[in-house]
Fold each of these.
Amino acid sequence: MRVELLKPGGEVDASKLGRVVKKTDATGTTPLPGLRLLVPRLRVTNCPEDQRRRATGQHVALSGRLCEVLPATVCSLNRGFLEFGTMNDNDDDLALVRRALSGDERAANTIYSLGPQLVAHLTSKGAPHGSISEDVVADFLGDCFGARERSARATTNRLLEMYKGNGPLIAWLKRSCWRKFLDTAKEVGMEPPSPGDADPKPVPVSAEPEAIARIVAALEFAFSEIDPLTLIFLRLVYLEEVSQADVAAAFGCNDSTVTRRLRNGLKALRQKAEAFQKRKTGSFEIEWPDLLAICQSPPGFFYEN
Amino acid sequence: MKTNLTQSEQFKILWKFFAKHGAEVEARGSDELLSDQKAALAQLASGNADKAAQVKLIPLLIGNRNALTYLGEQIKLLRPSADSKARPARHRASRSQKS
């Protein structure tokens, strides 16, 4: 069932959402026959503050519409009606930053305590180990709080004010710190590290919710477009571990037909997913190996706390 | 760009991710199978279903994950490839009679 009202990244008034029919667990395995709609980053407004509660990683059915409630979604059950607050996936991080900027020492210390992670991030990307990276991180954290250029313009000098909660704080800090390192390297005439200099230890893949939503949408399109019999063969052979010969015998075709369908099926999946991205996303496209890497180690924000 | 993953690994990764995050797959169709559906799937697993019966079962196999799992189990149990190699003539005969 497709509902035009609920779109990824869209917005809907809480009053337009209906009664909760059924709530599933975090894995979404509870049967909801006939329902199919994933709404990543759906923003629901006008939820009374005092009725909010946190729901993480749940799928809920709204008047026969299935909607995923992302971790930071604030919602409440009120006389059987599901109500949501304004959603922000990183509201905790944003609150921490605001507290730190307003002078809360504990909050500031929490951010400073991320320093070693930032040093490790720099070195993993090829920055030199030791004092150079540590100094860059120390300078960067100083910039975050405007420590180096306190003046009448102090508020505009505080780098942390640039963080708007559009992604996890640590990811923002890592990106910004890496830019700081590159600027510093340029200033002192240091050769910027090449990809080959990177630490061989792999860095866990992280992805923004938007990227996840795009991948889900692209895969949904690809799986719905692929030839149904080919999809059945793919699932039987790769997931149910049935031999290709047995699949061929069951469906009365040659082994080579099954082999060809498997090979072409995966190719078609990739082509459909890429075509969908080209058509829909516009701003950037996730390359196939990156898409596989994200699928392999999806970020934690989709899971229950 | 190329990847070092095998086709099987790629498909498993995509499917597991999609099954977790794409509501369509997991949410849609995990109904219990009816006895006549089981019988039709067992017939397909044995290699004795004609084309019409196969086509009729495709929506069930796509839309109900239990159906696909059941078919996989039955195929592994009945091993139709061994059967068809042992008795190719009879297999073809029964198939042509049905169609």
Amino acid sequence: MGLEMNGYRLDKSIEADSESEGLVEEIHGHHPMDDLLRTERLPHIWCPGCGLGTALTCFLSALRRSELDLDKVTVTSGIGCTGRVAGYVRLDSFHTTHGRAIPFATGLKMGNPELKAVVFSGDGDLVTIGGNHFIHAARRNIDMTVICVNNFNYGMTGGQAGATTPIGGLTTTTPYGDYEYPFNVSALAAASGAVYVARWTVLHARRLERSITEALLKPGFSMVEIISPCPTGFGRRHKQREGLDTMRYYHEHGVIKHGADPRETDIKLGGAIIEGKFVDIDKLTFLEQRARRLEQVLGKRK
Amino acid sequence: MKENQKNVLSGEFFMQGDIACAEGAICAGCRFFGGYPITPATEVAQQMSKRLPLVDGMFIQMEDELASMNAVLGASWAGQKAMTATSGPGASLMMENLGLGIMLETPCVLTNVQRGGPSTGLPTLASQSDMMQAKWGSHGDYSIIALAPSSPQELFDLTIHAFNLAEIYRTPVLVMTDAEVGHMTEKVVIPPQEEIEIVPRRKPTVPPEEYLPYRVAPGEWVPPMAVAGDGYYIHTTGLTHDERGYPATTDDSVQWPLVQRLIDKIEKNKDDIVMLEKDGLDDAEVVIVSYGIAARTAMWPIQIARDEGIRVGLLRLITVWPFPDKQIRELAGQVEGIIVPEINMGQIVREVERCAAGQADVISVPHPGGDIHDPQKVLNAIRKAVGREVEE
């Protein structure tokens, strides 16, 4: 039985064996991204309604579109729900410690500049516990694409507040509402020196895919912030019990504004989510700067 | 980055210990240093920043020691021999990802030029008070290799050896020196490059579809290591993982054999790893067990005591971890007393006591750090151990 969905062909067959303990359901599908996934590890751990599946699909589509040599693409993740991405991609992939994906990937890139370093992790991992590494990698303009999935809370540990939780946000550690000023991930990247910064919700999947493709091909530090539903941790405390409720929210509150000043894209509870490509500039990468300086000073000696 | 040995030094030098560490690393093939300045280890980073670009290597000053340790791990997974150097406060920050290095089985070297603690302590002055941190500093059960040089020459030699051990056992190796040795300037002989033994990384020989990154061949302890870019599409994780490198966290069926192997690959190879310097042990009635600069400080009191007719021997631990249990146990059966001077309030002495198991008196000669031992105190301990009267 063939089924067309969004251009992807799904072969779906259901086998029911009344003699076995329960209904055995097998869904055999050929997904066009299968060869980029460690399919033996599926199903993934993510909750129903989570946006990470969409984020990962967009990344894999972008990766294919980028035509990068897959032998040289590395994916490094930290800890958390998004941190599990490294474990699902059929690439050289590293699941590291909490907050430390960026310095690990920095080592990969510096150890072998032929590698493409992708960091795929969450907001808590990248800009809360790992915030220092995030700003310094951007400052150095390390050749690296950072994909930051922002769901405004710590999902895996049960919905605690993080540096991105909006004021008033209800989480398991802000039971009376968050009263800390949050980070704006895109503004933080831009202010720290990133050459490419874009933000999309998972609702805007095609635009997201295009942005990730651009980021992958951009020399220097590129960052794509993906706003993503967490019905289990965040959504259900904000009248978005299902992932679909959050997607509706994105539909109603998403405002596409390419070239917006990142400082004016703060995300507030119940407010607009400004999306688009905010930064796309050119400057020498860390390795180019280094090569140029060493050539100037050591050129004759080497 | 292609191998470029043309700028590797050889000859006789008047060299500071920290510099000797850096030069040893370069001789060993280290082509990546990620670090953060900290007294008294800064000179290692400085030397690497100057020297690595000359040998097609990469130096990067990271934003902190958490990042430094991770960058070292990343570089190792990119195929480089990689190291960092730090001291107490930095070592504390590195412990998190030293654990990651152990769990991922990542060859690399961490030099700790120890200074007085706790906390900021004595930034410019020596101690040996991180010896137990070296053993137990990261969370979880594991085993570690730690070497203790007592001179700039040995800091050079043991840094090379640390890189070799790191490759053989696929593990981070610690070089536990201190501010005295790190900042001491002495003669250092660097042999011609071709005379220096260098252990290369052991890569898989099977094609990618047959390769399991954590499968260990029968009779071996350590799996061959494919790195990023080799086309093996490896996955590795700090979670407890099976032979494929995939998480296996629902019960202890993988945890047990994995943790056991991480420990056994070092502990079961003690005979190959442990290095000791022995002097006058055959007829000794009392013996000094020490390491690093504290062992060197003991040389003078040993000489005086021998002149006084006391049969005193020296067992210097060049390898502190894994601990030479067997040798200490045997020694304890042969002597009256074991004296353990160390520049801490008594860390390795606990291991000595454990191994001696009451067979001999074990006497700690502690020192909180800041200076080396007053040799007179070690001499007094020797005299007391053989029942002589001592004027305090």
